[in-house]
Specification:
Layout lengths: L4 H13 L6 H16 L4 H27 L5 H6 L2 E3 L5 E3 L2 H32 L3 H8 L3 H14 L9
Antiparallel strand pairs: 1-2
Length: 165
């Protein structure tokens, strides 16, 4: 999984967000640091190392977002820093910068973890369940059938932190 699913997922998310390419290793480190801070007991040294990684991530994202605030591009970061929310009364308000940072960070970190796990699970299923690779090959040219195949895979193999790697 670490050789295919994680780098592939990071490249796609980086492209969609409008971040710099070639950062797969750094983003992977940031992801590990964020998820460790959320869900793992840590000793002091590990906690401080993870906090330093998270601070580096925040500085990077904020700089990119400020640049898109000044000069929008065709990417999700630009969309988020310029997004407006329509309230129930019809009035609109812009997302705060902190809200936009939170959304970009969540997309980058959570998006790459869940998508990489789903891709890893799919590879596992295709290589361990007889007939699955052939079934996928038979529907690959039919978008409707391909979507049904993927949706069924996601339903049967939900995201899990215990993905076979």
């Amino acid at each position: 999984m670490k050789d295919i699913a994680i780098p592939l997922t990071i490249r796609i998310i980086v492209e969609q967000l409008g971040l710099d390419t070639g950062m797969e290793e750094k983003i992977s480190r940031w992801s590990v640091a964020v998820t460790a801070q959320i869900g793992a007991m840590q000793n002091r040294e590990t906690m401080l190392a993870n906090a330093a990684q998270i601070a580096e991530l925040q500085k990077y994202l904020i700089a990119k977002m400020k640049a898109r605030e000044a000069e929008p591009a065709e990417d999700m970061i630009s969309d988020l820093v310029h997004a407006q929310v329509t309230n129930a009364d019809g009035s609109t308000e812009k997302l705060t910068f902190a809200e936009a940072v939170s959304l970009v960070r969540a997309t980058l970190i959570a998006g790459n973890d869940t998508t990489a796990t789903a891709i890893g699970n799919l590879f596992y299923v295709l290589t361990t369940r007889p007939g699955m690779a052939e079934l996928l090959e038979s529907v690959v040219d039919d978008e409707r059938q391909l979507n049904r195949f993927i949706e069924e895979h996601l339903r049967n193999e939900p995201r899990s932190g215990h993905c076979p790697a």
